[in-house]
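From the shared-data thread, chain only:
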Amino acid sequence: MSLLQVKDVTHTYGSYNLFSRTDQRKRVLSNVSISIGQGMCLGVLGTSGAGKSTLGKVILGLEKPQKGQILFQGHDFYNTDRITRKQLRRDLQVVFQDCYSSVNPRMTAEQIISEPLQNYERMSPGEQKRIVGDLLERVGLNHEDMRKYPHQFSGGQLQRINIARAISLKPKLIVLDEAVSSLDMVNQTNILNLLSELKSAFGLSYLFITHDIKAAYSISDALAVMEKGEIVEECKSKDKLFTSRHPAVQTLLSSILSEHPRYRSLSGGRHYAQPLA
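Structure, as C-alpha cells:
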C-alpha cells in the first residue's frame, strides 16, 4: 500500500470582483492522481501556474478539493475523525520556499524548532532543549544556534532551521514546496545533499515540488510533470524524462543551460548531458 495516494483530485478557485462573487471558476487541478511509497521521493515539475503548489496545499489539508480523495496511510484525509486527522497531520510536514516568512521573526531557533514538539509531545524543558540541540546538529548547525533569531541566520541556515522543525516529530512524509528555489547554487546543493542524507537516515518520503529540473533530478526517485493543472507525464524512472516528447517536458528540458559547449547543438537546440546531478 502506498504511503500517499492522490486519487482523481479536481480543485477550482472562484473569481471575485469588488462587490460580489462571480459565477466564473478557474480549474487549477483536473483529475490529478499520484502515489508515493515509503522512503520514496516524487518530484513534481512544472512551470509557474501549472498547479504544483495547489496540489501541495490539497495534500497538506490546507485546501479541500471539490472532487477526489487524499489517502494518507490508508486514511481519507478529508473524511476521517478529528483524532485520526491530528495524527495524520503529525506525520505530514512541510518546508516552504520562503524561509523567512515561514518563521516568526520574534522567536529563537529553539522556539521555532520546538513548536511541533510542544503541540504533540509531553516532555520536560531539559529534554526539549536536548532534542532541539540534536536536531540543530543533524541539519549542520550548532547547539549554540538555538538562542539566535531568524535575522541572525543566512537564508541557507534558516532553511536548515525549517528542515529541523519539519523532522522534529519524525514524520512519514515531507512536502518540499520549492524548498531550494530561493537559495544560491551553493546553498541549493548543500540543502539537497542534506535532504538526501535525512531521507536515508529516517526513512523519509518526500513530495518535491519545483520548476527546477536539475534539483528534481538530483533528489527524486520518480518524476511527474504538470501543465495547466494536469499530470501530463509520469516517469517511474527519472531518466525516462529525457525520452519524453511531450511539449511541456520539452519546455522544461530546453530551460537547462548545458554546462559545456559540446552539449549544445549548432542549430540552437541543446543536447542533454546525463546525469544532471
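The two ends are 30 Å apart (CA to CA).
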